[in-house]
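hey so u asked for the seq, here:
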Amino acid sequence: MQSWMPFFVMVTAVAVVLQMVILAALFFQLRRLMEEMNRVISDLNARLGPILTRVQILLEETQPRISNLVADASHIVYLARTQAQKVDRVFSEAAERLRAQLVHADRILTGALEAVEEAGSQFRRSVWAPFHKASALVQGIKVGLDFLRSRKRPSPSSSSPDEPAAQEEELFI
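ran it, structure tokens below
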């Protein structure tokens, strides 16, 4: 076993040196990568810095305008709501007045129609009823006179040629 010992020590020494070389290579590679990352970050900062500064300045300049814009929009919405409520109130009042006027006009029209109907009934009772009675009376008198005339007439064989003319004259009157 002793003869193998120097061999294992050498293998271990080579393994340690190989590990050291690998670790050194990893160290240099990480160092180069870190330098590259630092350079990219510096370049990114150099490019983004002015943009971020401009955005910050723009936000600082526009923030009061945006605040005023939002306040104005809020005020406009408030005014529009108030005006809409006023318009709604006006239309509601107008509709109520129109309804009241329609009810009033309906009452007036109904009263007028009732008055016309009553006047027609009065007219029929006061003018037409007596007129019909007078007409019936005249008709009765006419029938009575016709009846009396027909009784006074002589027989048709003894009538003269002048009598039909007299009869026609009597009928005409």
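Helices lie at 4-152, 163-172. The chain has two helices and no strands.
lmk if thats what u needed
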